[in-house]
Q: What sequence folds into this?
C-alpha cells in the first residue's frame, strides 16, 4: 500500500519542521552581518574565522570532548559488564539491580543535576573534571545497559557453546565470538553515551566550575548576553562534526557487522 | 451459491508477471483448489478475487456482476487467512460479530448467528475467550466461522491449514470439507500441498509461473496430466527420455537401454526415431522376482529398498536408467539391493508427455 | 573468572562472577545516584535563612510554601499544562508520521528515520537556539505569518508559553513517532484485510483495528513525552527564561542563583514525585488494565 498524496505532503512538512531549526542555525552561521539573520544574498565565513579569535570556545570544545570520551569509555565498560551479568546470571537482587540501573532514565535531568551538586560538594569535587565524569557516567550508563541487555538477550548462546565444544575456553570465546557479535550494540550504545555527555547542559550547569566549562555551557552563557552569529558558527561546526562522525560510524558499523557475522 | 468467473487476469509486480492471462470459471457450490509451488501466482489470484490488489488487465465476475471496481468491503466474500487474522483485542464473540455488525444486524440476530456459527465449527461456548487463549486449530475454526457468518457469496481460503501440525491438518481437512458441503458455498482454496488439494477438491487448477497449466478433477489431473509440470508436481513420477523404435496400433515401442517398453500414444503423432518424454508413476509398476512370472517386460536390478510399513520404495536400475517403484506390502517381502527383479506395467500406465 | 556451566538458555547460577561484574556499577550508583537522592530529600527539610544560609533544622516550611503559595502553584500548574499540551500535540502530529513510515520501505525509510532522529543528536542548546531565531519578534515565523497576511503585528512567541510548546514539541516528537512506529510496524496486515473483507470501510478499519492495536505504542510514547516535557530544562529556560517559569527552572534558580538549596530541593522532589507517579500509573494500567490480557 503506498501512502496517499496528502499523507506524503504531511510527512515532508513534518520532516521539514524537525530539521528546520538546525538548518536555520547552519544558514545563519554564514551571514556577513553582525546580527542573527538568515543570509539571502551574501555569504561569509567571517564568523567561522571569529571562532579562532575566541580561544575560550575552542577550549570548551576540548573540555567537552575529553569529558565525553572518558565518560563514554567508562560507561561502555562498566555497562557492558553489568548488562552481561544481568542477562546471563541468576542471583539474588538481580531484578532489583536491573531496575536500579535503569532508573536514572526516569529521573529528570535537573534532579540529577542537583543531586550531583550535593554529593560532589560534600566530596569537594564540585567543578572538577572528575566530578563531572562521575555525574555523567550515572546519566549514561543506563543507556548502555539497556542497549547491551537487548544485545545479549538477542544473542544466540548456542554459538558460544559451539565455540567451547571446539576447544576454546571462556575468555577466548568471549573475545572471539561474543564480543564481535554484540559490537554493533556496543558501538551504538557508546555513541549514545558520548552524545548525551557531550550535549549535556542541565547537569553541567550545576556541576561546572571555572576550570571545567563545557561547550554547551559556554554557548548558553554567550546567548544570555550577546546576539551575534558566532554561536551559530560554533553550532554549525558541531553539527557538521556530528554528521561526519555518524557517517563514519555507519560505514564502520556496517563493516563491523560483516566481521561479526563471520 | 455463486459462480466466479475470471477472464484474462494479469497482474505484474516490479517487472515480474505474477498472474499471466488467467481465465477460470469456478462453478456454484464447487470446492476448487489453486495449487502450485511458491511464486506460481495462486495467492496473487486469490488476492485479486478478494480485492486486496487490483489487476493490470482482465475482469472478474461473481454471478455475472463485474467485480473490478468494487472495493473490498463491498465484495461480500468470506476470507480465511493463513495467519487466521483474528482480532487479538476482541473476544471470539466480537470477532465473529464484526462482519454482522458491519451489516448493521440487530444484536439479537448477532447472538443467534454466532451461536449457530460456533455450532457449525463445533466450538460452542468459547465466546468470551480471546484468540490467544485458543489453540491453532481452534483459532482456524473461529476464523472460518467469522468468514461464514456474514453469509458470503464465495469463501476464499489462503493456505489456511499450513500453520497446523500434520495430524491436525488432516483432521481439519475433513472438517473443512464437511462444513463447505453442509453450507453449500463456493470455495476457492489456495495451497502448495498437492495431497491436500487432491483430497479436498471437486476440481483443481494447477498453476505454474502465473499460468494455469491444467484444470480438472483430482483423478483427471493425477491420471491424465497434460503438461510435464503437472505431471511432476502432482504426485511422484518417473520421467524418461527414450527413442521410438517402432509404432504400431496406437502404441510406440521404446528403447530403454536395450530393454523394450510399450507406451500407448493416444492420438499423438509420433514416428520411428523420435525422442520422446514418457512418464510412469511408481505405484503403477509391478515388481517381482526375476525368475518365474510370465508376461513381464523389463529386467532390472534393485539399487535401494526402503521399507515404510505399508509399502516399500524401490530404486531400480533398468536399461541404464534409474526408476522409482512403489510396491504395496502384500506379502511382507522386500527385495534387497542387488537382487534381480522384473518390472511390469500396463502400456496405458505409461504416458506420453512430449517431445524431448 | 569462574567458568559457567554451559546450559542454554536459562540464566546460570554461578558463584561470585556476577557480583564482580555488577560491583563497579553498583558502587558507582550507590555513591552518585542513591546517596544524592537521599541528600536531596533530606535537604528539602532543612531550614534556610537568607543571611546565614542552610540551617541544621527540620522544617516543613518549604513544602508548605511550595504547595500553598499561589505563585508556585501557578508554576506547577503551568508545567503540567504545558506537558499535557505538548503530549497531545505530539500524539496528533506524530501518529500520521509513524503511519507514513510503515508504508515506505528500504532506503527511503532509512533516510527518513535518520532525519527524524537527527534532532536527538544535536544538543538541546543548539536546537533551541535555532528556535530562538525562528520565534524572535522579527524572526522567520513572524515574517512568514506577516507575509501570508495572517497577522498585523508580531506575535509574541519568545518568552511565552506558545514558544515553549513549539520548542518542546520539536524536541520530543521523535520519541512519540518512534514509539508509535514500533507498535505499528509489526502489525499483521491481514487483520486490516480481514476487517475489510468483513465489510469494514477503510476508515472503520483504522478506528476499530489499527488504532487499538497501536495502543501500546501510543501509551509508551505518551509516557515518554509527558515525563520528558515535565522534566525539560533547556528549552523552557531559553525560550521562557524568568518570564515563563517551569518547575525545572525554579529548581535551577533556587539552587544556583538564590542559593536556597532547601527550597530548590523541594521543587526537585515534587518534580521527581510527578514523574515517578506517572510511570507507576502507566505500569499499573498496562499490567492490570483491559489490554493486559490482549498484549502480554
A:
Amino acid at each position: 500500500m503506498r501512502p496517499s498524496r496528502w499523507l506524503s505532503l504531511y510527512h515532508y512538512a513534518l520532516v521539514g519542521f524537525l530539521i528546520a531549526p538546525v538548518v536555520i542555525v547552519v544558514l545563519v552561521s554564514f551571514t556577513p552581518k553582525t546580527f542573527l539573520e538568515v543570509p539571502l544574498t551574501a555569504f561569509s565565513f567571517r564568523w567561522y574565522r571569529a571562532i579562532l579569535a575566541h580561544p575560550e570556545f575552542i577550549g570548551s570544545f576540548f573540555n567537552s570532548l575529553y569529558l565525553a570520551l572518558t565518560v563514554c569509555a567508562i560507561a561502555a565498560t562498566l555497562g557492558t559488564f553489568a548488562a552481561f551479568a544481568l542477562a546471563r546470571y541468576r542471583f539474588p537482587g538481580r531484578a532489583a539491580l536491573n531496575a536500579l540501573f535503569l532508573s536514572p532514565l526516569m529521573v529528570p535531568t535537573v534532579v540529577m543535576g542537583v543531586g550531583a551538586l550535593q554529593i560532589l560538594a560534600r566530596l569537594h569535587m564540585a567543578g572538577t573534571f572528575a566530578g563531572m565524569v562521575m555525574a555523567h557516567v550515572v546519566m549514561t550508563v543506563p543507556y548502555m545497559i539497556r542497549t547491551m541487555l537487548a544485545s545479549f538477550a538477542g544473542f544466540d548462546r548456542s554459538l558460544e557453546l559451539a565455540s567451547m565444544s571446539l576447544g576454546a575456553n571462556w575468555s577466548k570465546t568471549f573475545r572471539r565470538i561474543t564480543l564481535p557479535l554484540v559490537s554493533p550494540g556496543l558501538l551504538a550504545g557508546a555513541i549514545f553515551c558520548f552524545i548525551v555527555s557531550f550535549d549535556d547542559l542541565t547537569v553541567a550547569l550545576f556541576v561546572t566550575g571555572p576550570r571545567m566549562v563545557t561547550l554547551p555551557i559556554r554557548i548558553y552563557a554567550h546567548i544570555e548576553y550577546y546576539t551575534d552569529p558566532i554561536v551559530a558558527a560554533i553550532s554549525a561546526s558541531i553539527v557538521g562534526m556530528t554528521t561526519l562522525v555518524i557517517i563514519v560510524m555507519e560505514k564502520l558499523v556496517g563493516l563491523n557487522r560483516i566481521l561479526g557475522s563471520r | 451459491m455463486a459462480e466466479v468467473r475470471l477472464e484474462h487476469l494479469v497482474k505484474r509486480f516490479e517487472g515480474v508477471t505474477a498472474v499471466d492471462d488467467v481465465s477460470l470459471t469456478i462453478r456454484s457450490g464447487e470446492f476448487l483448489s489453486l495449487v502450485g509451488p511458491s511464486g506460481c501466482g495462486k495467492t496473487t489470484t486469490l488476492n485479486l478475487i478478494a480485492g486486496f490488489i487490483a489487476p493490470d488487465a482482465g475482469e472478474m465476475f461473481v454471478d455475472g456482476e463485474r467485480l473490478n471496481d468494487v472495493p473490498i468491503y463491498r465484495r461480500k466474500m468470506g476470507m480465511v487467512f493463513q495467519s487466521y487474522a483474528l482480532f487479538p483485542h476482541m473476544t471470539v464473540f466480537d470477532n465473529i460479530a464484526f462482519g454482522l455488525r458491519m451489516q448493521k444486524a440487530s444484536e439479537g440476530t448477532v447472538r443467534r448467528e454466532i451461536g449457530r456459527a460456533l455450532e457449525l465449527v463445533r466450538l460452542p461456548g468459547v465466546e468470551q475467550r480471546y484468540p490467544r487463549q485458543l489453540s491453532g486449530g481452534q483459532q482456524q475454526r473461529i476464523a472460518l466461522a467469522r468468514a461464514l457468518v456474514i453469509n458470503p457469496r464465495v469463501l476464499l481460503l489462503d493456505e489456511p491449514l499450513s500453520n497446523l501440525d500434520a495430524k491436525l491438518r488432516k483432521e481439519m481437512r475433513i472438517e473443512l470439507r464437511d462444513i463447505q458441503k453442509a453450507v453449500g458455498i463456493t470455495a476457492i482454496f489456495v495451497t502448495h500441498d498437492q495431497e491436500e488439494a487432491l483430497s479436498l477438491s471437486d476440481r483443481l487448477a494447477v498453476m505454474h509461473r502465473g499460468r494455469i497449466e491444467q484444470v480438472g478433477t483430482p483423478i483427471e489431473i493425477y491420471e491424465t496430466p497434460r503438461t510435464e509440470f503437472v505431471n511432476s508436481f502432482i504426485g511422484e513420477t518417473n520421467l524418461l527420455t527414450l527413442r521410438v523404435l517402432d509404432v504400431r496400433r496406437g502404441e510406440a515401442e521404446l528403447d530403454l537401454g536395450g530393454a523394450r517398453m510399450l507406451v500407448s500414444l493416444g492420438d499423438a503423432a509420433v514416428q520411428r526415431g523420435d525422442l520422446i518424454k514418457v512418464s510412469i508413476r511408481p505405484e503403477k509398476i509391478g515388481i517381482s522376482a526375476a525368475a518365474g512370472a510370465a508376461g513381464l517386460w523389463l529386467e532390472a536390478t534393485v539399487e535401494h529398498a526402503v521399507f515404510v510399513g505399508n509399502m516399500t520404495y524401490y530404486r531400480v536400475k533398468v536399461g541404464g536408467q534409474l526408476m522409482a517403484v512403489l510396491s504395496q506390502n502384500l506379502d511382507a517381502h522386500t527385495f534387497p539391493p542387488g537382487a534381480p527383479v522384473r518390472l511390469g506395467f500396463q502400456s496405458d500406465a505409461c504416458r506420453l508427455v512430449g517431445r524431448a | 573468572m569462574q567458568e559457567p556451566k554451559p546450559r542454554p538458555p536459562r540464566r546460570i547460577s554461578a558463584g561470585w562472577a556476577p557480583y564482580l561484574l555488577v560491583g563497579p556499577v553498583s558502587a558507582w550508583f550507590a555513591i552518585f545516584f542513591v546517596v544524592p537522592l537521599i541528600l536531596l530529600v533530606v535537604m528539602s527539610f532543612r531550614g534556610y535563612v537568607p543571611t546565614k544560609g542552610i540551617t541544621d533544622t527540620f522544617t516543613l516550611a518549604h513544602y508548605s510554601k511550595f504547595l500553598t503559595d499561589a505563585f508556585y502553584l501557578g508554576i506547577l500548574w503551568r508545567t503540567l499544562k504545558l506537558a499535557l499540551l505538548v503530549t497531545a500535540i505530539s500524539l496528533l502530529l506524530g501518529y500520521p508520521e509513524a503511519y507514513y513510515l510503515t508504508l515506505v520501505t528500504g532506503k527511503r525509510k532509512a533516510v527518513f528515520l535518520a532525519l527524524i532522529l537527527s534532532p536527538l543528536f544535536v544538543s538541546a542548546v543548539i536546537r533551541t537556539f535555532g528556535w530562538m531565531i525562528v520565534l524572535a519578534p522579527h524572526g522567520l515565523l513572524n515574517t512568514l505569518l506577516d507575509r501570508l497576511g495572517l497577522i498585523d503585528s508580531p506575535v509574541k512567541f519568545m518568552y511565552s508559553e506558545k514558544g515553549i510548546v513549539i520548542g518542546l514539541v520539536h524536541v520530543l516528537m521523535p520519541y512519540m513517532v518512534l514509539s508509535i512506529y514500533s507498535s505499528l510496524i509489526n502489525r499483521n496486515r491481514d487483520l486490516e484485510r480481514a476487517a475489510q473483507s468483513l465489510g469494514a470501510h477503510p476508515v472503520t478499519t483504522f478506528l476499530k483495528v489499527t488504532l487499538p492495536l497501536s495502543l501500546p505504542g501510543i501509551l509508551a510514547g505518551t509516557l515518554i513525552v509527558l515525563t520528558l516535557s515535565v522534566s525539560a530544562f533547556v528549552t523552557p529556560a531559553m525560550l521562557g527564561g524568568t518570564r515563563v517559569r517551569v518547575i525545572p527552572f525554579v529548581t535551577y534558580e533556587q539552587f544556583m542563583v538564590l542559593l536556597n538549596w532547601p527550597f530548590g530541593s523541594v521543587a526537585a522532589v515534587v518534580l521527581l514525585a510527578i514523574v515517578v507517579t506517572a510511570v507507576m500509573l502507566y505500569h499499573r494500567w498496562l499490567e492490570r488494565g483491559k489490554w493486559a490480557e490482549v498484549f502480554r
